[in-house]
Amino acid sequence: MTTRRTFLSGAAAGFAAGLLPARAADMPGVTDKEIKIGQTMPYSGPASAYGVIGKTETAYFKMINEQGGINGRMINLISLDDAYSPPKTVEQTRRLIEQEQVAFLFNPLGTPPCLATREYLNQKGVPQLFVATGAATFSDPEHFKWTVGFQPNYQTEAGIFGKHILATKPNAKIAVLYQNDGFGKDYLIGLRAGLGADKAGMLIKEASYETSEPTVDSQVASLQGSGADVFVIAATPKFAAQAIRKSFDLGWDAARYVTDVSISIASVLKAAGFDKAKGLITANYGKDASDPRWKDDPGFKQYKDFVDKQMSAKDLVDSNVIYGYDAAICLVHVLKQCGADLSRENILRQATSLKDFDLPMLLPGIKINTSSSNYSPIRQMQLQSFNGASWELFGDVLQG
Amino acid sequence: MASRLAWGLAVVFAASAPFWMSGYHLYQGAQVLIYAIALLGLNLLTGYNGQLSLGHGAFFAIGGYGASILIVKLGLPYYVAIPLASAVCFVAGFLFGFPALRFGGLYLALATFALAVATPQLLAFKRLDFLTGGSEGLHVPKPGPLLGLPLSVDQSVYWLCLAVAIALFAIAANLLRGRVGRALVAIRDHPIAAESMGVDAALYKTICFGISAFYAGVAGGLDAIAVGFVSPESFGLALSLAFLVGIVIGGLASLGGVIFGALFIEFVPNYADQLTVYFGENAKALPGAVYGVMMIAMMAVAPMGIAGLFRSLAQRLRKA
Description:
By secondary structure, chain A is an alpha/beta fold.
């Protein structure tokens, strides 16, 4: 406890030195003309491919500002590069809170960066809204009430697979290939939860791999040897492609489920071979911009209109652009709901009391719901299977 | 004389910072001091002894994770944990020094590069999860106030880093001034001549590697408590490369240079990120490119590093 108290007194000393205007004490970062928001994003470094999310959100808020802002206030998003390095994230986050005095953080990206700053933000009572990571640990209102997730986490998706397996093959014998990190382990936890405690024995064999391994062929062979008739692939794109190909080549006649991390037709299924990928099952929550079926869909048209005007043409089919677009719209909705009270407490309250809110690029029927005990805004998905050329949705929208 | 005055002023300036700087700036200041310690270690090895290392991030990681594990899992106080973890680094560096004896120049660079590449994956290794926390990393509690004084955490951490940095700089300066320093430089410049003069090259090179790793380990340990979190992503390849950038930009074989090098690797990436605003919205994704241009400009202006630039300016002034 000493450490926390000294931390707070240190924070208070920092406040006094930081020449904080007293009037903003109840609504930091908010003036009559502006709402100041912070974000850390990997614009450089190993995860820089995600930087386009921050660019998309900046562009979307610019458009909102051109249309008059929110209740007359402009959104000022300060999006800083953290190079996906936790020490840098801590530094940039402190700059946003202590120097720029933003109202809250929006959609900061990455599991390690968000873990490194979560405690600091919760101690300060600053909302860490809609964190851009699939780790389940960020939906924990009991311990971290200021940190709210966004996309379905890996456990949610694995839970949906578990329920679908129970419904279609009640006597299945399941084998799992998973990546040895937080992502893969979340998957195992979710799958067990979806099956339920008494059915967890259906999971007869697990094999893991390290990202440094050249191939997962031997893992797939040993999983097949277990006699399983369901194969769950919790692997990142390169390894998923290998597993899909190898399981087909071995003549393994199992129902194959693959994580939505690895469902890109261009980079995964093509590499595995379309004929070898036929029959794969996965779950998804967003519309695929390259799918002609959405051509006349109002949500897609709205999205396309935004990309045409604010982004470049190649961005249209980028799933990260779609992600940033939906997240930005969700935030604008939250801020509108806040009305005149833009205190941190009320922003958190509004963000955690969303009811059946719809986003343009979510699959039809999938709605955003949050409450004081549910910090996972998107927790529904729909199953789809690969027909040899494209993904086909089937069944109802499921909840993990 | 002038250089003593400059050092004195720098120390007074640095020591007074907590009286007038905000907590955020003190955090940045602590990062600069931590980088300076690590760069000092690398400069001893590469600048003075001529052994090129692209893997000092690995020793930084051992120091950081070592201290964190001792603090979190064994409940040791940081002033015990950091020296212990640094001692482990010394041993690791010393042992790595033996194969390094057989590698010269670029081959050693490659061997140490492998170390930097392997580190993040080893830290996430499944069987070590119970120690390292795996890919989720470890949260390190913030230290209490220094010496029981009424200080904030940021002030305590900053002054701790400053005190450690001053001590380690003094030790390095002392070491370099005497026969050890002469031997290290002689081995770098003329290994055969040095050996024929009776210098035990193998011993000096391995010990130099050990000391260098020790410095990196101390820096890593301080970084863990300053940030309050370690994860495999904290110690990626980019960190090792940043260290190399730091000693080259600051000035090889210069003690003062590492401070400029540390300032460069701490602040210039931030400026690069902010400068992208002036290149239009599409440049938002290009801080790396801007950073690269700034680095090239720096090398064009000061090919001998910032310390070298000051040295040649001083010489010109004296001639004039």
